[in-house]
Amino acid sequence: MAEGYDKAGSPVEEGADITGNKGPLSVVIVGGGIAGISAARHLIKNGIRQVKILEAMNRLGGRIHTVNGDAGKIDFGAQYIHGGEDNSLYQIAVKHDLIDRSSTPTKGSVASTFYGNEFYKENGSRIPKKIVKEVNEFLESVHKECNGIDNNTNYHESMGNCFERRFEEYLGSRDNTLEDVDTRKGLFDWRMRWEMHDNGCRSLFDVASPARYQNYTGNYFTEIKNGFQSVFSMLLKDVPCACVRTETPVTRINWENIRICNDENREDSKICMVETKHGEYFYCDYVIVTVPLGYLQLNIDTLFQPPLPSGKKAAILRSGFGNLVKVFLTWTKPFWEKSFEGIQFIWTSDEDIFDTQPASTLTKKNGDPWYRDFDGFHVLEDNSCTLLGWIGGEGGCLSERLTEGEILETCYLLLKKFAADMDIPKPCKIQRTQWQSQEYIRGCYSYVSIYNEPNDFQELIKPLPSKQNPVVLFAGEAMSYYHYSTTHGAYESGIDAANLVLQNVTQINRI
Ligand SMILES: Cc1cc2nc3c(=O)[nH]c(=O)nc-3n(C[C@H](O)[C@H](O)[C@H](O)COP(=O)(O)OP(=O)(O)OC[C@H]3O[C@@H](n4cnc5c(N)ncnc54)[C@H](O)[C@@H]3O)c2cc1C
Predict the structure, then answer these.
(1) Superfamily holding 25-63+228-320+449-509
(2) Distance 221 CA to ligand 1 centre (A)
(3) How many angstroms separate the CA atoms of 327 and 434, rounded?
(4) Most buried residue, 147, 189, 493, 505, by CB count within 10 Å?
């Protein structure tokens, strides 16, 4: 296996790449998530002989991370394939029989997904399904407007503003009783929380509207048998083990015309040096950087030598990258009926709802407790004893500072308070995610923020030193114009970066 070099250019350790060659690598890929694997796979399929993926963590997959739950697999990161036949990952999943299509209900819209859930107010009363459906259908039309499906006006309005403005119009067009207004406002507040988690932002008022994200047609929520990792594993099969190094954090990418090369047969004009935390140096012709945007933002001043051009740096810092927390609660046996789909929390007042305070009272900047950002809990298709809850925004970030015990206690109090007519026992287990606290991830996924400027995307993906002479290329979900924030966006961006390398690569790098 070809390994790193020391600063003088001597191999740190004897070894050769998958084809037995020593010498500088063709392409180093920083990050072993789906973008990194898809780039490597595409390069290898197209004859590039020396590819190395350097992954910081002790596992591959990045934000795809399937773990064992008590009653089946659960996904800490990506869980659903969004879209049908046009989505390449959907095609891969179908080809390898990873989708149980007979049991996957069609969930084309957010609104319809939650019709089977019970919406409860904090006083324990259920909201009639007719009202839930009516308000959600209206808000679904606003969701489409905000996602650029119906119109393309007001680019710099925030999604939060758009929702508020349209909801005011909606309320103004009706003859409301006081209680009715409170219920509808509560359902609106729920939808804002759901949108916040779906957009992976801290506040919906930071998200630009209409967003450029475009859905593929077909089911919005297709689950994978045995978790999303099975799709990732299918891709990984085409990447030889020798091409991958885990536990190898890259600390610096030196892209300034380094020309150390031990191979006499090569005329290298643009060799790049990648330095790792363990003091190894990898020399290569191209680097594809797939680290998450949140990591890039935090390490922007140290990761590149020379530093990034100011325009690119500013575009990266202006882009949005938020957080999303998943909480899995498990019971020894389900307390719910077969027809039960979930409980959603509808707050209709700002009053403190608990007689006894939950173990943790961390509050958001506006004074609300962290747990106000919970949407609710719903059943998982494959997992009969577990409910999944989502916390977006600031509340999600605060939850990462709490212990599992503190979160479990609070969830139990919330469920008992809202679903007061159900007999809910205490969960026996909690598993929760902490994506923002993870050193090499730093949040959930990217969004277009109101601070972004029109050319920011072009700056984000612009290779270094230039598009005409690409040496350092950028891939990952944030580098997808229409499908940012998703696995398929990351997958497609890896192929795009690989194609750019293929257009520029010299014959000598091919097998
Ligand atoms: C909670 C959650 C739910 C989600 N749900 C869905 C969903 O249902 N459907 C969907 O399509 N998408 C979903 N996503 C988004 C999806 O997971 C991501 O868009 C996608 O996996 C990103 O892939 P990537 O390769 O761009 O980045 P990553 O998977 O983050 O890979 C980047 C890799 O770079 C590594 N790295 C970072 N710094 C360094 C360094 N210095 N040196 C070496 N390696 C480094 C990281 O460790 C990581 O492994 C979800 C994400 C989260 C967090």
Answers:
(1) FAD/NAD(P)-binding domain (3.50.50.60)
(2) 18
(3) 10
(4) 493
The residues, any chain, with a CB within 8 Å of residue 359's CB and separated by 6 or more, are 405, 406, 409, 410
Domain with CATH 3.90.660.10 in the chain: 109-215+323-437
pLDDT band at 72 (very low <50, low <70, confident <90, very high): confident
Fold (CATH) for 109-215+323-437? Polyamine Oxidase; Chain A, domain 2 (3.90.660)
34 CA to middle of ligand 1, Å? 7
Residues in the chain: 511
Give residue ranges with CB within 6 A of ligand 1: 30-36, 54-57, 62-64, 77-80, 82, 249-250, 290-292, 295, 324, 326, 433, 435, 440-441, 444-445, 476-477, 485-488, 490
d(CA 26, CA 48): 7
Q: Phi and psi at residue 319, in whole multiples of 5°?
A: -75, 155
CATH 3.50.50.60 range(s) for the chain read: 25-63+228-320+449-509
Residue 275's alpha-carbon distances to 47, 198, 438, 440, 462, in angstroms, are: 26, 36, 21, 16, 22
Q: Can you give the pLDDT at residue 407?
A: 97
Of the pLDDT bands very low, low, confident and very high (cuts 50, 70, 90), residue 104 is low
State how far the Cα of 342 lies from the Cα of 169, in Å rounded to an integer.
Answer: 30
pLDDT at 13 over 50: no
CA distances from 176 to 20, 122, 134, 170, 179 (A): 75, 21, 14, 11, 8
Lowest mean pLDDT among 108-122, 129-143, 318-332: 108-122
**Cα R_g (the chain), whole angstroms:** 24
Q: 227: closest CA among 377, 364, 388?
A: 388
Q: What are the tens digits of pLDDT across the range 187-233?
A: 999 999 999 999 999 999 999 998 889 989 888 889 898 999 999 99
If we measure between CA atoms, which residue out of 123, 119, 122 comes closest to residue 133? Answer: 119
Q: Please report the pLDDT score of residue 103 as a whole number.
A: 52
